[in-house]
Design goal:
The protein is about 50% helix and about 15% strand. By secondary structure, the protein is α/β, with parallel strands linked by helices. Strand 1, helix 1 and strand 2 form a beta-alpha-beta unit.
């Protein structure tokens, strides 16, 4: 296909890299000549617009996306026009006001659920969309051939296509993306004036919660204002529960029950997060291994696990404070936890409080 991408930031450049790798003819356009040329130099496509593109993808900031979509529908009268904005309802309403009914039939809103804390073409990755959901917001009036083009393009990036109504999409991303960004940023903001000796105690929990706090303030201001109604609704519910926790910390009658309830409800919600490959949530056993902070040790650990015939479902790593030592948590199916621990111990790895040791002291 001939794909023209308007906007060469992280998503636009990553899309160009992915589609170019699949052999599609990709052209690039950006209001910034430097950004446009950088994306081209990185291999995302060629600078310039084709005479007759099959698809035009608008990957501009959300606050100008509607105007750019309308202009693309006008400039490329035979092309299917789509976008990658993270808010769909308000954008669709804005586009509808700017174009004719015939032009609107050529517009299909999309949102690939992928991104990074870094921005710009320099942060682009050809595999950014691989195994990530790609939401398509079409309706019964969408021509089947144009919908097929957009689906094919999305699947060629390695993404998994989902079809959602725009309002359902916006309600969903408020819960799973937009509010988590706000919460992460607010937690990180509490560290601004904390003494360094306090921050030095930070463990993996803090890093997990604040990872996305490094995101671009300008972009996220546009996203949040674009989905203000849905985000505000979730935050009001969150505020209610937060007020209950604050009240419980006054340690009055019933406070311990309220605190336990808050944590338990969090457990309940956490258990609903999809598991590996989007499958139903699965409870895994976790084996913690102490790994010296030296070149090749992590590779050796996973080589030894592979030699034992064990499949790693997930893993995470933390670093011991003040010591050149890492703690790697390996998630496996519970039935092989003891087998893995016995095998790793026999290969000389240190496993603090293994299941074998616990059984021996029971």
């Amino acid at each position: 296909m001939r794909v023209h991408i308007i906007g060469t930031g992280l998503l636009g450049a990553s899309l160009g890299l992915a589609l170019s790798a699949k052999g599609h003819q990709v052209t690039l356009e950006d209001t910034s000549p430097t950004a446009q040329q950088l994306a081209a130099d990185l291999g995302a496509g060629d600078v310039g617009a084709p005479a007759h593109p099959d698809i035009v993808v608008v990957a501009t900031p959300p606050d100008v996306a509607a105007q750019v979509i309308a202009a693309a529908l006008e400039d490329y009268p035979n092309a299917t026009v789509t976008d990658v904005a993270s808010v769909k309802t308000r954008l669709l309403e804005a586009v509808r006001e700017l174009v004719t009914a015939d032009q609107l039939d050529r517009y299909i809103g999309c949102h690939p659920m992928a991104g990074r804390e870094k921005s710009g073409a320099i942060a682009a990755q050809s595999d950014l969309f691989t195994a990530r959901p790609w939401v398509i917001c079409s309706d019964e009036d969408t021509p089947a051939d144009r919908l097929g083009e957009v689906i094919a393009m999305a699947e060629d990036t390695g993404a998994s296509v989902l079809h959602l109504d725009p309002r359902i999409h916006d309600a969903a991303v408020a819960k799973v993306s937009h509010v988590p960004q706000i919460v992460s940023s607010l937690v990180a903001s509490q560290l601004r004036h904390a003494p360094l000796e306090e921050i030095s105690l930070a463990g993996q929990g803090l890093r997990d919660v604040t990872r996305i706090a490094a995101s671009d303030p300008g972009l996220w201001t546009q996203i949040l204002t674009g989905n203000a109604e849905e985000v505000r609704s979730v935050l009001v519910d969150l505020r209610t529960e937060l007020d209950e926790v604050i009240g419980a910390l006054e340690l009055g009658p019933g406070s311990t029950g309220l605190l336990a309830k808050a944590i338990a409800l969090g457990n309940e919600g956490h258990d609903r997060i999809p598991g590996k490959h989007g499958q139903a949530p699965t409870t895994y056993a976790v084996v913690t291994i102490l790994v010296p902070d030296r070149p090749g040790m992590l590779a050796r650990l996973f080589m030894d696990i592979g030699d034992l015939g064990v499949n790693v479902e997930d893993f995470r790593m933390d670093h011991a404070s003040g010591r050149k030592l890492g703690m790697v948590d390996v998630s496996v199916v519970p039935a092989i936890q003891q087998e893995l621990e016995i095998g790793l111990l026999s290969k000389g790895w240190q496993i603090p409080e293994s299941a074998i040791e616990r059984e021996g002291t029971a």
